[in-house]
Amino acid sequence: MATPSRVYSGIQPTAVMTIGNYFGAVKNWVRLQDERECIYCVVDLHALTAPYEAGDLRNSAREMFVSLLAAGIDPDRTTVYIQSTVPEQSELCWLFATITSLGDLSRMTQFKEKSALLKDGSVDDEGSFISAGLLFYPVLQAADILAYRAGCVPVGQDQSQHLELSRGIARRFNSRFGFLFPEPETLLTHVPKVMSTADPTRKMSKSLGPKHYIGLFEEEASVRKKIRSAVTDSGATPSGEVSPGIENLLTLLTACGHPDDADQMRADYFAGTLRYVDLKGQTADALVALTGEMRERRADVLRRETDLDARIMEMAERARGMAGETLARAREKMGLFPPGAPRAVAT
Predict the structure, then answer these.
(1) Is the pLDDT reported for residue 61 higher than 80?
(2) CA distance 21 to 193
(3) Would you state the pLDDT for residue 346?
(4) How far apart (Å, rounded) are the C-alpha atoms in residues 69 and 275?
(5) Beta-carbon neighbour count of residue 216 at 10 Å?
(6) What is the dihedral sign for C-alpha 318, 320, 323, 326?
(7) Which of 52, 81, 125, 194 could form a disulfide with 319 if both were Cys (CB 3.0 to 4.6 A apart)?
(8) Does residue 271 sit in helix, strand or coil?
(9) pLDDT of 60 over the 70 cut
(10) pLDDT given at position 122
(11) Pick the residue with more confidence: 114 or 85?
């Protein structure tokens, strides 16, 4: 299994892909298809660690699958699948859990932050439950990556600690049982950090509410309204720096493919001649062009994929073939029996 150039990454199954998701990750995923073998996952098992409605989860995962295809992920040359359709990853997670220390997991920033919210009373009773799944989240993440023996993972800075744990798990397995897993490297690529237009000091997120994000397939009127009301100046800024709100709009304009316009407006800002209405107008025009194209592409995906669930299962079988081979080798190296053959149940 040739793996050094294989790329693996995952995305949460939110029903709405935001422009933050697109510019911050998915647009780069699309580009990487031209350079490397890529495997992308809708991580619905990870989503179980946060509050969710069972009736909505499958639809959200399916919607994210469609969104990835519409954004440009090509299932004919890229493996794109939904995590829960590949049970081999969950079993590998358990095997990895036996060689992962509790101390390593308790030091993970994500778990510490969630625990701190509970301790200082920042969450209400409904949100105060911290599942063991949150603690084991990075072990499952390691199983996601290592099941495909991926050589590199495009991640943001906030996920670098989890990737280092994956490297440590691979190293410990190889040392104890013999080499099987390459240590995945961080794939460093420049991706814009998209902030909320309503509060440019916070990262764009659906969890903050509708006014804080723009959907990749959002209608024109809504996009223009959100950009028109975008925060620009939010207080004094250090000399020589652009205010967070203006910086965010310039980032969006650049990400939409208009870097020269963004550079000119940045120069106008420092010259004191920038008209905010012009910046908002150009940014809105660029985003409307993007979301309009994406809505057309999404409609085209739904026309082509007449049996969407069949396509999802096709991708699952492809992913299971790769993950199953890795799991079988890991089981053998760890001294386990092969799985028993399923028996027919008398009716």
Answers:
(1) yes
(2) 10
(3) 67
(4) 38
(5) 26
(6) negative
(7) 81
(8) helix
(9) yes
(10) 46
(11) 85
The catalytically annotated residue of 203, 225, 226, 333 is 203
CA distance 206 to 188: 26
- Residue 156 pLDDT class (50, 70, 90 cuts): low
Question: Three-state DSSP class for 104?
Answer: helix
Q: What is the pTM of this model?
A: 0.90
C-beta atoms surrounding 87 within 10 Å: 15
pLDDT in tens, 234-269: 555 666 788 999 999 999 999 999 999 999 999 999
Which of 27, 112, 114, 193 is labelled catalytic? 114
- What per-residue confidence (pLDDT) applies to 190? 76
Spatial neighbors of 227 by CB under 8 A, at least 6 apart, are: 197, 214, 249, 280, 283, 284, 287
Q: What's the CA gap between 177 and 169, in Å, rounded?
A: 12
- Phi first, then psi: give them for residue 152, nearest 5 degrees: -150, 150
What is the DSSP secondary structure assignment for residue 343, as one 8-state letter? P
The mean pLDDT value of the chain amounts to 90
Report how far apart the first and last C-alpha atoms of the chain are (Å, whole number): 42
Q: For this structure, is 280 an active site residue?
A: no
From the candidates 27, 112, 206, 226, which is the catalytic residue? Answer: 206
C-alpha span between 43 and 84 (Å, rounded): 8
Count other Cβ atoms within 10 Å, centred on residue 141: 23
Backbone angles phi, psi at 81, to 5 degrees: -145, 170
pLDDT of 94 higher than 70? yes
Q: What's the number of CA atoms in the CB half-sphere (13 Å) around residue 181?
A: 31
Is 206 known to be catalytic? Answer: yes
Supply the DSSP symbol for 26: I
CB atoms within 10 A of CB 192: 16
Half-sphere exposure of 14 (CA within 13 A, CB side): 16
As a whole-number percent, the residues of the chain with pLDDT over 70 amount to: 90
Is 80 exceeded by the pLDDT of residue 114? no
Whether 112 is catalytic = no
| Distance separating alpha carbons of residues 216 and 17, to the nearest angstrom | 6
Q: How many CA atoms lie within 13 A of 203 on its CB side?
A: 10
